[in-house]
Amino acid sequence: MRRIPIRGRVLLMLAGAVLAAPVGAEEDDPLRHFPEGPNRELVAHFCSACHSGRIVANQRMNRQRWDEALSWMTERHGMPPLEGEYREMFLDYLAQAFGEETAQQHRRLPFAAPPARRNPFAAN
Question: Would residue 63 count as lying in a domain?
Answer without folding.
Answer: yes
